Each structure stands twice: as C-alpha cells, then as structure tokens.
Amino acid sequence: MKALLMMGCPELPVQTAIGLYIANKLNKEGFEVTIAGNKAAVSLLLNSDPEKHYIKKLIDLDRCIGALAEKEIEFDLGFVFIHSDSGISYLATLKSLSKAKTVAVIFGKEIEPLIEASGDSMIIAAKAVHNPTSLRARIDEVKSWAALTK
Amino acid sequence: MKALLMMGCPELPVQTAIGLYIANKLNKEGFEVTIAGNKAAVSLLLNSDPEKHYIKKLIDLDRCIGALAEKEIEFDLGFVFIHSDSGISYLATLKSLSKAKTVAVIFGKEIEPLIEASGDSMIIAAKAVHNPTSLRARIDEVKSWAALTK
Predict the structure, then answer these.
(1) What is the spatial distance between Cα B78 and Cα B98, in angstroms, rounded to a whole number?
(2) In this complex, is the C-beta atom of B38 within 8 Å of any C-beta atom belonging to chain A?
(3) Coil, strand, or helix at residue A55?
(4) Which has the closest alpha carbon to A14: A107, A80, A93, A77?
(5) Does B53 reach chain A within 8 Å, measured CB to CB?
(6) Where would I find the H helices in chain B?
(7) What is the DSSP letter of B33?
C-alpha cells in the first residue's frame, strides 16, 4: 500500500509536526509513504527528522503533481494538508489526477469553510495553529488507515 | 555534559525543526539534553518525534525555571530560542539562574534588535520564519558544541 502526504507552504507550525506524526503511523502500518512538499515544507521536515527515522521518500510538490499527471506514480491513500485555499486546490488536483482515497487534514483558525470545500474526502479537522494536540486526537480516532483503502 | 534547550511559544514553524536538529547534534556529541518548552512547544515536539528518537528529556518551561532557581538542576550549555522579547526574557532568566554557557538561537523577520538584546551570549541568528535552511547553515558552522563549554 502506498500513501502520499501533500504539504504546501508551512505557515502554521502544526503542519510539520502532524505530518511526521501521520507518517510514523503509516510507516508502522506498513505503508510505503511519500511526502511531497514545497521548499520550506521539505526543509522543515528534514531538519525535524535529520536521521530520517520517519521520512522515507521526500519529493518536491510540483514534481509530485507532474509525476501524478504523467501516471508515473500512484497511491492508495492521499493526505492533503489544508489551512488555506491553496490546500483546497491541492486536494482538487490530487482527486483529478489519482485514484487514491483522499484525506483532508484541516487546521488553522477558520476551519469551517475549508471543511465545506473539501467535498467527499475523509475529513480530519481541528482548530489548531501552534498546538497540534486537538488535531492529533482526531487522527488517533482512526484505528487503521489501511482499512480505509479497501 | 548537560545541555538545555528553552522554547517559548512556537509562533514560527522553524522553532520545532531547529530544536530537534540541535538536539540530534548534541545527542550525537554525547550531551545529556533536556528540552524545556511551554505547552504548545512540547506538543509540537512530541508529535514531530513520536518515537522519541531525538527527544530524551522534556519538561515544562515554568517547571524548568523553578528547578533552576531552586538549584535542583544545572547545565553546561543552554540554548534559548528567541523570536520575540519573551525569548530575551528567558535568556536573561537563564543567565541569572545558571552558570551555563548561553547560546541565543535567534530567528524571525526582525532579528537585529534581538541580536542586540542578547548581550554576551553566543549568537546563532538568521532571518527565518517558514524555512529553516539559513538558520541550519549557522548551526552547522559550529563544529563542536562540547568545545564551547570548556
């Protein structure tokens, strides 16, 4: 099983922490995990996990979208990190280019419009900017990510 | 050798990433590393490193200051993460309560006044908000943290 985590601009501190937290859960479930991020997101991830205990594959976000469009890569499960409209765009892009089951990971101060815009994706959402505890609680409610792909 | 990392409110995404990056370097040099943070800082660290590969001891920031004041704990090297005046206050607190050699890790958009306010501490500073690459470069210029404590 293959999972993708898509991360745009990391304005909010919770993004990197929750990304690594989800990656660890997926690794432990046996997923092959790829994280795609923009330059700042990738740098935050690499500095947070310098020995790559949690990060297995890390690619540039634009390259990832290109490779999805060219059908060079495909995933069973795709997490999109959303705290603004640009996150909603990435979710729409993933939905149009991949057959992956999509999960919208929504955080920030104003989450309601983002939840509404996420359509039929699975929603993991919490008001969280600096403290990821509430978002983590939503993630921990999911007992098996593999089960979602079936 | 014992090192302390002090982290206040994590408004800027680089704080957690650079904290874990420095902790890893210190662990590898054989330091016994304690990270002290406020609630949000601690939660970001624990979610970023869920298996505690980098985090060894983690304590509440206020409890840490109390224990320093009571002389229950002491350190050889103390890093204070500074992106606002509150960081400068923590640096002053550490200087007054400990004999540790202090390192001011300064980041954010307006770093000059913070550098000026850090006095005779060692300064590691870069304009960095979302992307820690420039700050990491300053850290990598230090070949041995242990040498600083001598």
Answers:
(1) 9
(2) no
(3) coil
(4) A107
(5) yes
(6) 14-28, 39-48, 61-69, 85-97, 112-117, 133-140, 145-148
(7) E
Lookup result for tokens 């989800």: A22
Residues of A in contact with B13 (CB under 8 A): 10-13, 15-16, 40, 44
Could you tell me the CA-to-CA distances from B28 to A47, B53, B68, B138, B145 in Å, in that order? 15, 12, 25, 18, 11
Give the gyration radius of chain A's Cα atoms.
14
pTM: 0.95
A65: Cα separation from own chain's centroid: 14
Helices assigned H by DSSP within chain A: 14-28, 39-48, 61-69, 85-97, 112-117, 133-140, 145-148
Q: What ipTM score was computed for the predicted complex, to two decimals?
A: 0.92
For residue A115, give how far its alpha carbon lies from the nearest alpha carbon of chain B (Å).
Answer: 23
CA torsion sign for A57, A60, A65, A70 is negative
Q: How many residues does the structure list for chain A? A: 150
pLDDT of residue A150: 80
Report chain B's C-alpha Rg in angstroms. Answer: 14
The answer to whether the Cβ–Cβ distance between B11 and A130 falls below 8 Å is yes
Q: What are the tokens at B128? A: 């960095």
């954010």: which residue's tokens? B108
Cβ count near A56 (within 10 Å): 14
Summarised one tens digit per residue, pLDDT across range A97-128 is: 999 999 999 999 999 999 999 999 999 999 99
Nearest to A24 among B11, B51, B131 (CB): B51
Query: Are A95 and A72 spatial neighbours (Cβ–Cβ below 8 Å)?
Result: no
How far apart CA B115 and CA A15 sit, in angstroms, is 28
Backbone phi and psi for residue A35, each to the nearest 5 degrees, phi listed first: -110, 130
Tokens 């002053």, residue located: B92
